[in-house]
């Protein structure tokens, strides 16, 4: 992750997305009967009389339209039509989008639903010039208005929380909740959109890591906060972060046994890396977190780095009278042996049990 990179504007353009997404084939002729609107004809006078108080209501659950309804701009209108199509399960297509006029119609053969929005020099805003609200089509499950962007917006929270969400399950959920049968590849695109957005959101955070470090040290004197940059990268690039608060350090040394559990786990979500942590037990036999670190991955080098800082913080010395408990991770075994050769090192019973269970899964007792 590069430091000093500003937040990027990852704004996906919904509008363009929809247009390109299968809506670029225009087989409708401009001489179509329903397209007889003319800015010079009397229609405009009628529109003006009806339109005085009809401003589009963007707070309505399902957008409604009528002749003379006013919109601030084309974008607002198109968004409203798309919302309407998705909610009512109608497949609406923008068959014409010119400088002064937009026409949308239902794509079902012979379905009469059509709406025309227009503006001209006499109007300051955009108005519905013609509208037929009648549908003769069934509810659609192939609604192409449901784009990858729409799916991404709708399921953003779920995708963020479950980056490994199975695509077939996602497709099922879209069908269940949005009533549209989308392709697996559209689900994949939606997931990519969410993950890219999340990545973009984290970019600026890394550039603030030194300010974060300075603030932690200012407000918690005596703490250990270490930021390590990647020595192999050309630009300053974040590699590791170590944290041990002074108060926690003091508390541990004053009241806890010299027994420490060490373990690491992966980060789920958009960022890579692993969390390493050191846990003790307090006088009530409850978990007592001593120190933690963010590293690129769990290996011999990262555990040695972590243990060196940790052992110095809590004064482990050569390990005499200390006990460390871990899974059988080679990095931990190596680091403890290296920095505290006289310490007792035990395997965690839970991990032994889990491995044992995995190995003998198929065997009878
Ligand atoms: Zn229709």
Task: Give a short overview.
By secondary structure, the protein is an alpha+beta fold. Helix content is 37%, strand content 20%.
Walk me through this protein's architecture:
It is a single chain. By secondary structure, this protein is an alpha+beta fold. The chain folds into three domains: 15-132, no CATH class; 148-206; 209-359, Nucleotidyltransferase, domain 5, CATH 3.30.420. It is 37% helix and 20% strand. A hairpin with a 7-residue loop joins strand 4 (114-118) and strand 5. The longest helix has 23 residues, at 184-206. Mean pLDDT is 82; it is low at 4-51. Residues 90, 106, 108, 111, 113, 135, 137 line the site of zinc ion.
Which labels suit this protein?
binds zinc ion, elongated, five-stranded antiparallel sheet, seven-stranded mixed sheet, 365 residues, 12 strands, 11 helices, Nucleotidyltransferase, domain 5, 20% strand
